[in-house]
Amino acid sequence: MTALLEIDLGAIADNWRLLDSMHPGATAGVVKADAYGLGAVQVAPALLAAGCRHFFTATFAEAYAIRACVPGAMLAVLNGVQAGEVAEFSAQDIIPVLATLEQLATWRAQAIRLGRALPAILQIDTGMSRLGLSMADAELVRLEPARLEGLRLDYILSHLASPEQPQNPQNATQAARFARVMQGFPGIKTSFANSSGMFLGPEFFSHLTRPGAALYGVNPTPGCANPMRPVVRLHAPILQIRDLKVGDPVGYNGIWTAQRPSRIAVLGFGYADGFMRALSNAAIARFDDAPVPLVGRVSMDLTNFDVTDVTAKTGDWLELLGPVHGVDALAAQAGTIGYEILTSLGRRYQRHYLGV
């Protein structure tokens, strides 16, 4: 028996609707990294049916995989256009997010070759030191508008570095820089806030917001109640129950030993399935709503839980992720973030999509 991963497409659609209702502009769906590990081919049509008309991926291959799933929708690639992809971008009506002067020139040259205007999105780095034109390069484009000839500039985009920390002054600094850039491009639409940025207030609103993790149930407001619906549930069956005596070790290196006569459930999943080794002696599962601690090391294919205090037996199922103990809680136990939990989910789980 394999573990079961349930993905609620209805909850993803509801999360998008909630975010879309929060601001006056349009709301995109970020479906990069295979929709944060949950399956872009399934998620993108659910978002389209909910009313989403703008989608972002990280790479061209990701965009190409869902192009047919979102007919008529804007589909853009955040990592920009790479060598050898230019013709395919234009043929598939996929928009590059241009982050360098070289990419801008390459995309403009393709427009000239085709003899028609090509849509483009321009990314400005306002303080993350990641992808995007520098402030100086953005000013150069403003002063030399010929660099944009042949292109239809749909949006100018920037990305917030610390939006999950509302008091971080970096947010205000980036907002001020973005506003300064936009003064030089009157009439061009903007795209600024990501999931957490949508909760920072009206000064972070733009014509197009770009929520990602919040769509999939990750809390965009750490430290506050999660406004998003949970999206995933993960269950795994008990393969065997082991009866241990006091002092018996469990798993590699014996980092956990029984302090009392114990019943240990062995489940058939591990770090090969994205259940991180850092969760050793840390994670909590649930059986009939009762907490069940993970004991010993998470190994590649097997993980052990102490079921001494519950009535679980071989063939019963434990819940690893669910409404009570979601991706953010599991991430805290692993010392990471919910994004990594979702994108690490393995392919050996049996996947069941709800709301289709």
Write up this protein.
There is one protein chain. With 356 residues, this protein is α/β, with parallel strands linked by helices. The protein has 2 domains: 9-216, TIM Barrel, CATH 3.20.20.10; 232-354, Lyase, Ornithine Decarboxylase, Chain A, domain 1. Helices cover 26% and strands 24% of the residues. It has 10 helices and 19 strands. The chain has helices at 9-20, 32-36, 40-50, 60-66, 86-91, 101-114, 135-143, 169-183, 327-334, 338-343; strands at residues 4-8, 26-27, 29-30, 54-57, 74-77, 95-98, 118-123, 151-157, 189-191, 208-209, 232-244, 249-250, 256-257, 262-267, 284-287, 290-295, 303-306, 317-321, 350-354. The strands form 4 sheets. Strands 1, 11, 14, 15, 16, 17, 18 and 19 form an 8-stranded mixed β-sheet that branches. Strand 16 and strand 17 (303-306) form a beta hairpin. Helix 1 (9-20) packs across helix 3 (40-50). The longest helix has 15 residues, at 169-183. It is elongated and about 80 Å long.
Into which percent range does the helicity of residues fall?
A: 25-40%
Distance between the terminal alpha carbons, to the nearest Å? Answer: 24 Å
CATH architecture of the largest domain: Alpha-Beta Barrel
Q: Estimate the global geometry from the Cα principal axes.
A: elongated
Q: Are there runs of 5+ residues with pLDDT below 50, and where? A: none
- Under CATH, the topology of the largest domain is which? TIM Barrel
Gyration radius, in Å: 24 Å
Per DSSP, the total helix count is 10
Strand and helix order: EHEEHHEHEHEHEHEHEEEEEEEEEEHHE
Mean pLDDT: 97
Q: What count of domains describes the coordinates?
A: 2
CATH class of the largest domain: Alpha Beta
Major sheet size, sense and barrel closure: 8 strands, mixed
Give me the count of strands: 19
